[in-house]
Each structure stands twice: as structure tokens, then as C-alpha cells.
């Protein structure tokens, strides 16, 4: 479960600055820290001269201006989105308006059948239903640019349209919100699926990516070890929930109170959703 991050000052975070994190990759951090974004959304720039942008970020004027300044003098060939949450995809529209680049993604946000018993639209109030990619990509597709190649790895669970991108030249996976080094992902039904999330984690364990770059938080240098630990955490939580059910506890609020005794109160609604997903 997510934990509230330390302050940006504690982390020595520099918002709006361009950071060269590898020979092919730069990052610009948005000023949107919080309990689900850690120190903020990290937008990645791939290549040089003719570049791709992964997860342009939220509709934040300061961030969009900083991103355009970082791209000055270059051509943006691709605007690529991992999934349609409000801290990842909305800035694709102003970036496209400024650059003319096409947008890429697995598809629009999954359509929930709101109005049915037990389905509440407020459960997904942080989703972006405006993003519709110009180019719909599928699992296994490749996106090529000047000196770089991205393999598309569909990883549903956090959302049904979540997709990671593996930079072949650096054996690096841009893991979006599927795997983060500072926290586990929140799974929000009905679009989010715990079963799909576990299957996607298993798929990543079987890959040989050497490094993960999540959209939030630091790089992950031993990714397979972390993914195995995340799978173990979820399986343990499942066992705990089953034990609660056997004890006659069927109210999600009561389950959260038992399972997350020391959790920040601001995160209890998200914990309830993850318990529901489990």
C-alpha cells in the first residue's frame, strides 16, 4: 500500500529541471507531489534531436512550460502514454498542439458500466477519459525512432490499458505505475484488476530487463527481486483477507482497520479499493 512521501526538500528534488539519467534518457519532474505520486510525475525524453516523450504528465502549466523548454530545438516524433490517469496523460494534448507529434497508447481508458449495482463512478475519479491515442499499440509492437527502439509490454492491472515500454538499447523498462520503487500500486475496480495485475507481475519476472524507470520515484536497479517481493506481499495480503472472512468479517472498512492499523487516514479509501480488488 502507498505511503505518504517525504517532502521534495527532503529528497533534494528539482522541479522543472532537465536531468540526464542515461545516455539516451532525460527526465523532467512535475511539481505534483502527493500520496500517490511520491515527489511528482517524471516525464521521460528518449533520444536526442528527434525524440519521444513518455508520460507527458498532468495539466500543469509550469510542467508543460518546462517540458517545452527542455525540448527546444528538437523534434518530437512520438508522445507515448503508459496509461490514462490524470497525472500521466492529460499533458499529451498541449504537447501535441505545440509539436504536432502523434500520440501513442494502448487505447482510451476502460469503459466501466456505471449505474450497475456496486459500481460507483467516484471510484475512478482520477482517470483521464479525454485521451484517445492517434496510434493504438498492442503487446509486442515496436516503436522506433532516431537511435532508439521501444518494445511495448502490455501490463494490465493498475488499469486495463496500462502498458510498459522496454528501451532495447539500454535494457531499461519504463514501468509507469505498474512497478514503482517507493510503493506498490493501487488497484481500483472496475477497470483495475488484481488478477490481471498479478499475471502482469509474473510476466515481468520472466523478462531480463536490467533497470526499471517508473513514472514516480527512483529507478529500480534489481527489478526482478522487487517484483517477486511485490507478488509475495499481495499473496500475503490475500491470505490475511481470507482469514478475516473466515472470522466472519465481511465489511471492507473493518478489514482495512485490521489490515492497515498504522496507515495514514488519507490513504484509507485507496486501501479499501485494493481490498475490494483483492
Describe the structure.
The chain is α/β, with parallel strands linked by helices and 278 residues long. It has one domain: Ribonuclease Z/Hydroxyacylglutathione hydrolase-like (Metallo-beta-lactamase, Chain A). The protein contains six helices and twelve strands. The protein has helices at residues 61-70, 92-99, 194-205, 223-246, 252-259, 268-277, and strands at residues 18-22, 25-29, 42-46, 50-54, 75-80, 102-105, 135-136, 142-145, 148-154, 163-167, 172-176, 211-214. It has a seven-stranded mixed β-sheet, with helices on one face. Helix 3 (194-205) packs antiparallel against helix 4 and helix 5 (252-259) crosses helix 6 (268-277). The chain is globular. The model is unreliable at 1-10 and 113-124 (pLDDT under 50).
Summed up, what is this model?
With 278 residues, the chain is an alpha/beta fold. 26% of the residues lie in helices and 21% in strands.
Catalogue the unreliable spans.
1-10, 113-124
Structural class: alpha/beta
Number of domains: 1
- Name the CATH homologous superfamily: Ribonuclease Z/Hydroxyacylglutathione hydrolase-like
Under the CATH scheme, the architecture is: 4-Layer Sandwich
Question: How far from one another are the termini?
Answer: 12 Å
The average pLDDT value, as a whole number, equals 90
User: Which strand order do you get reading across the main beta sheet?
Assistant: 1-2-3-4-5-6-7
Radius of gyration: 19 Å
How much of the residues is beta strand, in percent? 15-25%
The total strand number stands at 12
Q: Please count the helical segments.
A: 6
Shape: globular
Share of residues in helices: 25-40%
CATH level-1 class: Alpha Beta
